[in-house]
Amino acid sequence: MKVAVAGCCHGALDKMYETLELLQRRHNVRPDLLLCCGDFQAVRNEADLRCMAVPAKYRHMQTFYRYYSGEKKAPVLTVFIGGNHEASNHLQELPYGGWVAPNIYYLGYAGVVRFRGVRIGGISGIFKSHDYRKGHFECPPYNQQTIRSAYHVRNIEVFKLKQLKRPIDIFMSHDWPRSIYHYGNKKQLLKMKSFFRQEVESNTLGSPAASELLQHLKPTYWFSAHLHVKFAAFMQHEANSKDELPKATKFLALDKCLPHRDFLQIIDVEHDPNAGDSLEYDAEWIAILKATNSLVNVTQSSWNMPENNGLHAKWDYSVTEEAMKEVLEELNHDLKIPCNFTLTAACYDPSKPQKNMEPIHTINPQTTEFCAQFGLTDINDRIQQAKEESSGRGECEEEEEEEMDSTGSAEEPSEYNTDNSGLSSFNPDEIMLDEEGGDEDLSTCSVDPSPDHPPEFSTSFSDIRVMPDSMAVSSDDAMDSNNEELEKSGGSRQGEEKSSTERSLKRIGGDENGNSGVKKIKRRNQAIYAAEDEDK
């Protein structure tokens, strides 16, 4: 079957699906499945915008809300993972995965599903060492710390995935596995992104947790995004035993969803021709969730996963064939994921903007049903209980907790020596923020440009390059494919130019003594949200 893989979507669903439709018209190729490697931005309303970790001036509604409301429906089954620019409050409703809109499925913090016999896994978020060993404690309304930590990968998700024994066909992560750049055209990568050199040469670029999973799972394909550059690699794995057949992983990082970018790739994947067209649960993964349920942690306390070090009575949580059979029996041998999407928040109405809408902590019926069916802990329900217990404490304890929150996450010892999931060196694609400024006021959000008044970069993408084994899509001939709606797009450039100027001043500004005005580099990618493509 044909699988389309996209990089950072950034809420531009209309553009992504229009590209697929163009692909079909020009080349008679219709993908059976679309995978998106994070920064999907399932933003339903203004409250969701306030839960997205980007400066306020980059919070735009984009087009997901149209699919959430039912005004539009995804033309192809879409499966995605979370990145580091998401409506975290929305995705948090579905820690074990679920439908964010009809035909659009989120894999959860970590997950494995099946489609036409193809086994697809993924892990959401990016790696950050000081949050890695904590539980999923965050919930809206977020503060300046938790709005970031909410999308940081946790060790429990990696631990669950490492219990998998059966082969994985496709795996997705938002940030790259560390060291993967040594298995591709590193020279070309550094030519395109010279500011990667320091991290590449010191082998600190990317996620060590993802690298650990790559070594363990050895999937046929691994797809990532995050760094906004297209890069391919081929990794030959060592066999664990003489009886094991050699395995190799084809790695592909996708570019961001902007004009003049190869942000989409089509691959042919072997599948089961007798399998149905429905998205299905994976029996081994469900059994692992059941086996590891006792390890669920919703506190800020750092802790290590069980390991064979003499300190734990049990450290192997992989599951038996019998456990998987029990899952099948619970489901009456019907693994089809129910189409039980439910609206859990008001949908954005362009005619009635609500800029002061407050985010709330919501327990999604999909998660409630899933947990009840398999006997799992509803993480959000547990968080809610913890909040209620905390609210019953004395004022002194509350003040102490608030003080702890204001200081942010303390640096904890980590099994990894660095946490450069993004970049620590100067990156012209990133936003520079003052130490005292941080991200802009979380109470501010913008709904313009809306899909009804899109920015200029929302012209369609069209140039489709057919390759021997796959098909890539970019946008070099965008004018050929504009439909009537898109021809109306393209607003004023004045705001864009002003924003670009402000960014330049922040990068090159210094004080009267010649010191750099840049105090801190935050891992926030500016080119994602700019209306123009700044890369040369």
UniProtKB/TrEMBL annotation:
Comp. bias intervals (Acidic residues): 396-405, 431-442
Annotated compartments: Nucleus
Keywords per UniProt: Hydrolase, Iron, Manganese, Metal-binding, mRNA processing, Nucleus, Zinc
Stretches for region Disordered: 385-536
Major location (coarse): nucleus
Matching InterPro entries: Calcineurin-like_PHP (IPR004843), DBR1_C (IPR007708), Dbr1_N (IPR041816), Metallo-depent_PP-like (IPR029052)
GO biological process: mRNA splicing, via spliceosome
SMART domains: DBR1
Family matches, as CDD domains: MPP_Dbr1_N
Domain Lariat debranching enzyme C-terminal, residue spans: 235-380
Source organism superkingdom: Eukaryota
Single GO molecular function: RNA lariat debranching enzyme activity
Polar residues: bias regions: 415-427
Pfam family name, one: DBR1
GO CC aspect terms: nucleus
Swiss-Prot/TrEMBL cofactor(s): Mn(2+); Fe(2+); Zn(2+)
SUPFAM superfamilies (UniProt xref): Metallo-dependent phosphatases (SSF56300)
Composition skew (Basic and acidic residues), residue ranges: 385-395, 485-510
Family: Belongs to the lariat debranching enzyme family.
Cited PANTHER family: LARIAT DEBRANCHING ENZYME (PTHR12849:SF0), RNA LARIAT DEBRANCHING ENZYME (PTHR12849)
Protein name as annotated: DBR1 enzyme
Species: Loxia leucoptera (White-winged crossbill)
Gene (UniProt): Dbr1
